[in-house]
Amino acid sequence: EPDSVAGLIRNLLQGDCFEQQYFWRLLLADLQFVAAPFAIELVKCCTSFLLPSLHPEAMSGLLLYLKLQRPTVQFVLTIMFLPKDFGKLAAAVLASWVVSDVLTVFESLNVLIQQNVKNGQERSE
Fold first, then answer.
1. 49 phi, psi to nearest 5 deg
2. C-alpha dihedral over 82, 88, 90, 96, to 10 degrees?
């Protein structure tokens, strides 16, 4: 479960950088092929306690994990709306996904635009 994995990540934040790097390598090998809904929930859990400026090893591991994921519309939208402190992470992930699957990223942008247009029409009525 994403909460369990996030708990492991949180507990390891107190470890030294080598412990964290090895943990992320093992985690990436184990979670490489999980479905997008799991990864989305894991990201949401991690952003609730990670501090990018204080947890560089965890941020690096999370970045590599996300870059290895196959983007879906929901996943792209989740990354686009991460908290402000995670802007650099979001930009790096989205840039990677644009290279690997530009159609899904543009489809996600189209969904977002359509939602905004729909919301704008509802407000004007």
1. -130, -20
2. 180
